TrEMBL record:
This is Arginase. It comes from the Eukaryota. Its EC number is 3.5.3.1. Mn(2+) binds at residues 112, 135, 137, 139, 243, 245. GO terms for cellular component: cytosol; nucleus. Binds 2 manganese ions per subunit. It comes from Nasonia vitripennis (Parasitic wasp). Its cofactor is Mn(2+). Transmembrane segments: none annotated. InterPro entries: Arginase, Ureohydrolase, Ureohydrolase_dom_sf, Ureohydrolase_Mn_BS. Gene3D superfamilies: Ureohydrolase domain.
Length: 336
């Protein structure tokens, strides 16, 4: 009873002035071939996400799940492009609405193709946006270079203005123009990069930190180095697109394309805490949790990791919530 009373006391007095957050669920799995990833938004919500965010003193509005109508579109080596185009267009509109409502955006996928829509919406509102792509994979393939044809391996290439000439005309994607400069994109956590993707990274001098860089410099310095490259004047709106497979599979086993040797959960949380402290983190995608992969323990472990990452991005501090100015002592009745 005493522990609950103290916890309630700190939660009440530790609330800062309310910050607004909008949640958008994207139950989308057509950017890859493994069923189940589309179930993640509702699974993560049911694990208590909204209550956890409200416990940080946040004003949370859930905009619900993206719903869309699709048309049949045929483009070589891009199956389900009609679904990708329709879903991401609707997501872009919902992200724009949340930002214009004065709310930072949390987008819960779904596979990583949804980053096309979330980043497009962010750029259309805030214009000058810097993007951190936290992922084991570079997602820089085009339909001509991808071995799998999975669109969740193509979103950065679709968004980058420097790569516009490498694409054919894509029916259904006229709403989305490649308006992000690749100079404004930074990678953290890479450890499974295709040959063509490496060529693109080297050709354009893309800011890219693999796991060997994290091991050499530490996650704190890697985050700072990435920000100095993609946001040198500390004035851009920040967008983080966080693929749960950036974490080591021991930390997040229920995901479709796991790669050993990834970030620890502690490193992922530290990364998000650092980005939150910039006061410019206005959008976060959390993608690629797949509740159909692994047993219940694995799924629960992965969902818990996802919620820890989200909390860190929206203000949770492992030091505890700050007490407001003017309060210097505990009221005696707290302990009676």
């Amino acid at each position: 009873m005493l522990a609950r009373t103290v916890k309630h006391f700190f939660r009440k007095i530790g609330e800062r002035q309310y910050s607004k957050v909008g949640i958008i669920g994207v139950p989308f799995d057509k950017g890859q071939r493994k069923a189940g990833v589309g179930e993640a938004p509702d699974i993560i919500r049911s694990a208590g996400l909204v209550n956890e965010l409200q416990g940080l003193g946040l004003n949370v509005h859930d905009y619900g799940n993206v719903q869309y109508e699709t048309a049949s579109i045929n483009v070589d080596n891009m199956p389900n492009l009609g679904d990708v185009a329709a879903c991401t267009q609707k997501l872009s509109e919902m992200v724009q609405q949340s930002l214009r409502d004065g709310r930072r955006v949390l987008t819960i996928g779904g596979d990583h193709s949804i980053g096309i829509g979330s980043i497009d919406g962010h750029v259309k509102v805030d214009k000058d946006v810097a993007i951190l792509w936290i992922d084991a994979h570079a997602d820089l393939n085009t339909n001509k270079t991808s071995e799998s044809g999975n669109v969740h391996g193509m979103p950065v290439a679709l968004l980058a203005s420097e790569l516009a000439d490498y694409w054919p005309y894509l029916p259904g994607m006229d709403w989305q123009q490649p308006i992000v400069s690749i100079r404004n994109v930074g990678y953290i956590g890479l450890r499974s990069v295709d040959r063509y993707e490496r060529l693109v990274i080297e050709k354009f001098g893309i800011t890219a930190f693999g796991m060997e860089d994290v091991e050499r410099f530490g996650i704190h310095e890697v985050v700072n180095m990435a920000l100095r490259k993609i946001d040198p004047d500390n004035n851009r709106s920040l967008h983080v697109s966080f693929d749960i497979d950036s974490l080591d599979p021991l930390e997040a086993p229920s995901t479709g394309t796991p790669v050993r040797g990834g970030l620890s959960l502690r490193e992922g949380i530290h990364l998000m805490e650092d980005l939150y402290r910039t006061n410019r983190l206005n959008a976060l995608d959390l993608v690629e949790v797949n509740p159909r992969i692994g047993d219940k323990k694995s799924v629960d472990f992965t969902v818990e990791a996802a919620i820890h990452i989200i909390q860190a991005g929206f203000g949770y501090s492992r030091r505890g919530l700050k007490v407001p100015e003017g309060i210097t002592d505990l009221p005696l009745q707290t302990f009676r």
